[in-house]
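Thread: Modeling a multi-component assembly for a lab meeting

Hi all, long-time lurker, first post. My supervisor asked me to bring a structural picture of a complex we are working on to next week's group meeting, and I have zero experience with this. I have the sequence lines for every component (788 residues in total). Could someone generate the structure of the whole assembly? Inputs are pasted exactly as I received them:
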Amino acid sequence: MELWFSEKHTETVKLSIKVDKQLVSLQSDFQRIDIFDSQEFGRFLTLDGYMMLTEKDEFIYHEMITHVPMAVHPNARRVLVIGAGDGGVIRELTRYKNVEHIDLVEIDEMVVKICKEYLPQTACCFDDPRVHPYYEDGLKFVRKHENEYDLIIVDSTDPFGPGEGLFTKEFYGNCYKALKEDGIMVNQHESPFYTSDAIAMKRAHKRIVESFAISRVYQAHIPTYPSGHWLFGFASKKYHPIHDLNASRWNALGLKTSYYNTNLHKGAFYLPNYVQEMLHDVE
Amino acid sequence: MSKLIGDAACAKSEGEKNNETDRLSCQTEAPILEALEEFKQMRLVPFDVPGHKRGKGNKELTEFLGEKCLTVDVNSMKQLDNICHPISCIKAGEELAAMAFGAAHAFFMVNGTTSAVQAMILSVCKRGDKIILPRNVHRSVINALVLCGAIPVYINPQINERLGIALGMKLSEVEEAINANPDAVAVLVNNPTYYGICSNLKAITQLAHAHNMFMLVDEAHGTHFYFGENLPIDAMTAGADFSSASMHKSGGSLTQSSFLLCGANVNAKHVRQVINLTQTTSGSYLLLSSLDISRRNLALHGKQIFHDVENLVEYARKEINHIGDYYAYSKELINGDSIYDFDVTKLSINTLDVGLAGIEVYALLRDEYDIQIEFGDIGNILAYVSVGDSYKNIERLIGALSEIRRLYKKSRVGMLRHEYITPQVVTTPQEGFYSEKMSLPLEESVGHICAEFVMCYPPGIPILAPGEAITKEIIEYIKYAKDKGCSMTGPEDMEINRLNVLRGD
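Re: Modeling a multi-component assembly
Sure thing. I ran the full set together rather than chain by chain. Output:
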C-alpha cells in the first residue's frame, strides 16, 4: 500500500510526499486541518490541503521571518504575531531576553490546540509567560491598537482563504498605525515563481509600499513550498534592513541557528532580476 | 377598477399571514424550477428561439456563463407557461409568492423593479389624475408619470440636519396634502428609503383609504420586511394596495427580477393588462426561476437569514461608531413620525465629521481598498450587507474605514449638508417631457422650466424633473455635486453643462 499527500502547486504541477500515517483530519470553523507523518519530512501540517510546515524544513521559514527583523531593530520589546498558530515564530521570539511581551493573534484556536498536541517541535513555547494568545481576526485585533508594537510578524496562510484579509491595504495600514514610530513589520510574502503566486505577491507588495516608508523584500529556500523559492516582506518606518543591521550585536547574543546568519541576512535582500522587475512594476 | 371603500376590507390580519405550518408546507415547492428540471429531461429538439439553441450556437457565451445556465435560457412553451398569460407553472409560482408575501396577488416581474413601480402607478393613474408622493422617490416613479400624464403632488420629506438625508413623510403633511387635493387618486410611500427610514405606513394607509385613495408602496429596499423578525411593517400587512418588492436586492434573486404585490381590493386582471403594455413577451426563465427559488428560500429560511444579517450589521455599526467621526445610525433616530421606524439591516454611515463627502469615501474604498459599496452621496455611504456576507469581509470594511479616517481626515468646513430642494412643479412631467424645448448653458437656465431629469445617481432621487422651475439654488447644488464626484445623470448633455428647457416660457 502506498499513501501519498499531494498538493497542486499549479493546475499542472504537484508536489507529493509519501505518507506513513495520517494522525489528524478535522474541519474547524475556518478550515480543514490535517497532520501526517512521513519518512522524508517528518510530521507535517496542512490547512485546507495546503502545506504549512514540515518538521524537516520549518526552521528555514521561522528563522528567516523572525531573526531578520530582530537583528535590525535595536530593542524590540513588544511584538505582535499574527497567524502562526503552529508556534514556530513564538519559539524563535522567546529566545530573545529583551522581548518582554508577545501578543499572538490566531483566528483558529483549533490550529493551536492540534499543534500543541502533535507538533511540539514548534508549539513548544505557548506557556512562556510573555506570550498572550488571542483567538480572533487579525485585522480586527490590529485595528484597535495604536503606537504599541516594536515589531509585527505576519505569518499568514495564502491570500485565498481565512488569510485573505491579511493581504489588504487596510490590514497593512492598520499595522502601520499599531507600530511605534520606529516599528517594523515582516510578512510572509508568497512566491514570485508561479503566475498566480506572483500576482498575489505583487499585489501584497504594492499595498505595503503604499503604507510604509521603507519596503524591501528578501528571500529564502523552502523545499516544500511551491517552487521552493519564497519571499518575505520587510516594511519599516525608520530602520533599513541592511544599513541598520547590527551584526555584532546580534552575534553577541549567541543564538544558535541552522539557516540564518548575519551574512546571509544581507545576501537575502539581493534578489534575482526577474523578481526585482516584478517588484519595481508595482512600486 | 373599483375604488376602495374603506381600509377594513383590504387589511390583512397578522394572524392570517402567519398561519405558519400551512404556509411553510406549500412553500417547499418551486413550480418553475420543477418545470425547468422536467423540461431538461425531455431533451426536446429546439426549432424555436432563442437561436443559441441551449448554448450550442454560442460557444464563447456558454464558456463564460456555463452550460447549465444556457440550457434553461429558453422560450415560453407549453410546459413552461407564458409570463403574459400564466396558466400553469408561472401561475402556481405567483400564487406561492402571493402566499409567502401575504398578498392577494403577486406578479413575477422581469423588467426590473422599475417595471413594478410603473405598473402600479399606471394601474391607478391616468392623465390628469393627481398622485401624492414624497420627493425622494426613485426615478422610475416620475418616469411613470411621464408615461401616464398624472400630476405629482410632492410632499417635502423632512430633512435630518445632522445627517443631511431625506426622511419619511410626516402623517400631518400627508393629511394636509390629502385635504388640499381631495381629488388625488393615490398616495405613494417609500418603505423604507434607500437609507432605511420608514414612514408611519399603517396610519398613512388608513388615511389614504379613508379618502378613497389607493395606497402604493415602493418596497424596492424592503423585501426582507416580509420574512425577517422585528423589522418594520411591510406594505401588505399594513393594508396597502400595491407594493413593488425588489427581490433581487435583499431577496437574493437575479438582477432585474422583482415582484409586484397586490392587496385584496385590486383588480389583478386589470393589473396584468397594464403590465403587458410594456413587459417583454420573452420573459427570461433565468430571472423567473431565480424568483421562484429565492421566494422558496426566504419563505423557508428568511427568519434565520435576516437574523444573521441583522447581527452582522449591528456588529459593524458598533465597531464603526467606535472608530470615531463616522456615524452609523440606527433606531435611535426614531421620532414617531418622519422616522417612524428604521430598517436595522441597512448599514448607512454618515461621513461628514471625517471631513469627507460620502462619495469621496465611496471612491477611496473602491480605488484604494478594493471594496465596492452600494453608494455614496454628499454626506453618507451605504454598504449593502446580505446573507452572502461574512464577518471577514465586514472586518475589511471596518478596517478600511478606520484607515481612511487616519489618512484622509479633514476639517468639516465647507461641507454642504442640505440635499433637499423643494421642487416647483409648473406643469406635469409628461407636458414638460414632450413639449418643444431648447438647450441652454447651465447658468442661463435659471428661471426656465426644465424639460428633463437631473439625477444624482445613485440613489437616483431627482434634483429636477420635467416640468419644474430651475432655480439658482438648484444650479449651485448641481455644480457642487458634480464637483464632489457624484455621478449626475438624466440630461441629454452627458457632461451636464447644458440643460434642455421649455421653449417660450
